Amino acid sequence: MEKKRQSLKEVLKRSGKFSEEQLRYLPRSFDILGEIALVQIPYNLREMKKVIGQNLISLNKNIRTVYGKGKFYGRLRKQRIEFLAGKKQEETVYKENGCIFKLNVKTCFFSPRLSTDRMNLAHNIKKKEEVFVMFSGIAPYGIVIAKNSRCKKVVCVELSKECTKYAKESIKLNKLYNIEAIPGDIKKVCPRFKKEKITFDRIIMARPQLEETFLKEALMVARKGTIVHFQDFVKKEELEKKVSEKRVQDAAKRAKMKIRILGFNILRELAPYKYHIRLDFKIL
């Protein structure tokens, strides 16, 4: 498995070109996707961004390209990136959990920081389970599960045609035959599945940071015994008040379903006191 997270401060400290004050403002880590590094440049170090990029390349033999990470935009939640140093390339190949992924870092959102969660879920999949991954992106959850479990099949649905294209390429690279990547809008796909009486044993809601929960759509393709992994984004006070649990309970009530909360995990800290979590529940 590739090493995805390193201390940016420790890497740049070795160059001897940054003061302790400057190092103090650097983010704790950066992401490496194949030969491409993605780093968040603090506002007060913008004048040093090219130097930071050049030093990352000179101090890490695995990095050939460095981009600065910007804000997300649009319905497809693309991230603005700025070329900082090295070879100008956007396409890369990344390895994780024994799987190979091909992607474009400019057009496809991908977080290597969820690799542990992907493998943990794969280990929980039972033999012959049918799995549905919503908002699947380049299909990292689907591919890791298809390759590292004994599931019957995985169906991945993603709005972005670009991400779906890379998902299909990655499925071929991993020589998988028990997974399908479909481009489409969840709000249209789930009602169609419901009409066709297609349901799943397990639903993974790898949803981006959107206000809408899409729990209504997920419950359309659930059946008795289905386990749902609902990803949510909450502030510290919301976490303490169990806001995500209330969202799930309210959606189940509207769908006239009974559920049991199985537990939750904090997947990562997005910002001070803001968390990306996964809440698991079962249809009774």
Give a concise summary.
By secondary structure, the protein is α/β, with parallel strands linked by helices. The protein is built from ten helices and 14 strands.
What does this structure look like?
- With about 280 residues, the protein is α/β, with parallel strands linked by helices.
- It folds into two domains: about 5-90, 2-Layer Sandwich (GMP Synthetase, Chain A, domain 3); about 115-284, Rossmann fold.
- It is built from ten helices and 14 strands.
- A seven-stranded mixed sheet has the order 10-9-8-11-12-14-13, sandwiched between helices. The protein has a five-stranded mixed sheet with strand order 1-2-3-4-5. Strands 6-7 form a two-stranded antiparallel sheet.
- The chain is globular, with a radius of gyration of 20 Å.
The largest beta-sheet arranges its strands as: 10-9-8-11-12-14-13
Count of discrete structural domains? 2
Question: What is the structural class?
Answer: alpha/beta
What's the number of helices? Answer: 10
> Cα-atom Rg, whole angstroms?
20 Å
| pLDDT < 50 stretches | 1-5
Overall CATH architecture of the largest domain: 3-Layer(aba) Sandwich
CATH topology of the largest domain: Rossmann fold
What's the total number of strands?
14
Q: Specify the overall morphology.
A: globular
The name of the CATH superfamily of the largest domain reads Vaccinia Virus protein VP39
Helix content: 25-40%
Tell me, rounded to a whole number, the average pLDDT: 91
Largest sheet: 7 strands, mixed
The proportion of strand residues reads 35-45%
According to CATH, what is the class of the largest domain? Answer: Alpha Beta
